[in-house]
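SAMPLE LOG
Freezer: B-3
Tube label: C17
Construct: single chain, 190 aa
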Amino acid sequence: MRIIGILMALPLACIMLVPQHALAAENVDATDETQTNFKIQQNISIIDGFVQNNSQARIPYNYPGYEPVKNPEEAGREAILAKYSAKIASANFPQGKFLISASAYTASADECGKSNGITASGVKVMENRTLACPPQFVFGTKVNIEGYGTFVCEDRGGAIKGNHFDMYVKTKSQAFAFGRRNLVAEVVLD
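STRUCTURE (predicted):
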């Protein structure tokens, strides 16, 4: 019985190994390997001892007249805020850096009176972008907050007066962890 099992297993093993060996032999073509190495060498460079991938380097993003493609949500946001752009040009903003009292808020119903996330300017809230500003700051005004980045005035609030600004965050735990902080800010004029 063992001999019959071995005799049946031997041809099966040959059938399984021979095609794989033949396929492996086809891939070891010297010209393909050389071309692959050439492409790899073409897309990398060593700068200050570090290997840099240059596969994106040939895409001309900074040519004159280039505008990045915007998704429909971003295009809609810009269209809504565009109606305030004339007011931004004539607004009297603080010159240079100024101190703000910053806190964080969410789009929950107990804070905003509604939970759909639509701001007073008409756009939907977005983390790391939406800022509730005092009335003297026109919707669409960009404010750079040191250590946090550039935010856009898109919302108002009953307690947002003087130098109090509210940064939008997604969760209440983030808002409570942020608390209230005195931060340095500056209006960004395009």
